[in-house]
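Incident log entry.

Two folding requests arrived from the same account within the same minute. Monitoring flagged them as a possible duplicate submission, but the sequences differ. Recording both here for audit purposes.

Request one:
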Amino acid sequence: MTSSENVITLNVGGTTYTTTRSTLSKETDTLLANIASGSLSDDEQVTVVTMPDGTLFVDRDGPLFAYILHFLRTDKLSLPEQFREIARLKDEADFYRLERFSTLLSAASSISPRPRTANGYATSGAETGGYITLGYRGTFAFGRDGQADVKFRKLHRILVCGRATLCREVFADTLNESRDPGGPDDGERYTSRLYLKHQCLERACDLMAEKGFKLVATCCSGANGLAAANHPILTSNMGNINQTELMNHRNCGDYEEQRWAHYTEYVFFREPQTGYITPSLREL
């Protein structure tokens, strides 16, 4: 177990990081290794200030230091896709005298970015990002005489809207494409005509969660309530149907479902799997 003496807190340009001295010492003959061991030279002591609470302050780029710390922890370079600050990060690597890290940055700067689609999401990789909307028209069956207890919920069909390839990735064999058939090579086609082979909303939401999607928006329309006895639709001339017969018709099961019909949409989003990981020099 790591002792508390091995834990060290750094304040890099106003951003606080907590790590271990052994992590900072992964690369020898570096400024960070000297900070960890407490053997700073006179010149290094000018750039590293000890705060009253024991935190060591370094006046460098705070956010970029996260990539340096990740490299020391994993021995790999991991950068977001379309990362545009390699030159600045290389300056930080030179300041800390991290030669291997600087070499990996030079190699990464020559790597071409992965191809992207028109909507900005990468087409390669195990997972892509984007939006999927689940929509359904449902009804609620209430007890007689307008009782508040809901007996059951009935879904007629769960619609799936989004990029076809992304919908297939999430729902696989449970996706019914009979209304909008396409093949695996239909590109980045978007559709709103797909639906699921089952009517279990919870099952669909579980699949979305398992695939890393999060609910970001929802909307609902409907349901119509009871009309008063003097409502125009009840007092109008509707042939030979009197008001009592019409009210009996309204309270029947079929009309009950129509009256409480509603349409709901849930919008889910998953962040694109961005970034690339370059191998360490030991793996090359």
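Request two (distinct sequence, not a duplicate):
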Amino acid sequence: VHVIQVRLTCLRLNALPGFVMCFQDTLFPYIKDNIKEYLRTHWEEEECQRDVGLLRKQALEDSSLDGVVPIPLESGNGEEELERVIQAVVDNVRWQMALDRKTTALKQLQGHMWRAAYATGHVKGEVFEDVVPAIRKWREAGMKIYIYSSGSVEAQKLLFGYSTEGDILELFDGHFDTKIGPKVESESYRRIAESIGCATNNILFLTDVPREANAAEEADTHVAVVIRPGNAGLTDDEKSYYSLISSFTELFLPSST
């Protein structure tokens, strides 16, 4: 484990290294387990219909892919037909999730489902105890803190807005998702740096995914790989190559002022 000592003006975090509850273990299973009931409850709402419309359009674009589930239009012929359409949406969403798709249609529906779950208290973002004190300290030292995650910006804000530490959105200066580009492509990190007005070599990126770390390094960004319970294991080469931390308290970030 190495202590990171670099002159920085910006600190960019993957959304997950600071959180016990992650998308794979909690949020994605929530979608799979609750999507049918959510659709039945919210079907007549304009927002839900927009979500279904986007999924239907995506299904048409995916028509040449193996296993794609088309979503038929409703003709208003009663409850039995409605159930068939809802089941088609459920099957399409689960198919996309099984393939780890990042389509806007899928992300939008997921974000709306998570919003409802957070608002009703069914889901909370559980924060590792070192996270909030560390980020407050970094901000006091003049750091700017940004989130970059494959989860949508809306999903990120829900995660941090309904955390076990309360609403901690004020700790972050901005949010990015894959609309800026894939996390495994170096150009994405250059775009973010340009967007926030910060040179890439003045940014530290914290992640738990080596492929993301490699892409960030290619963009001349400093990187540390965060080891947390439940994270995928690293190879011996990755352990020896990357700077590793298991707590945000292991970072020494000198003042940017």
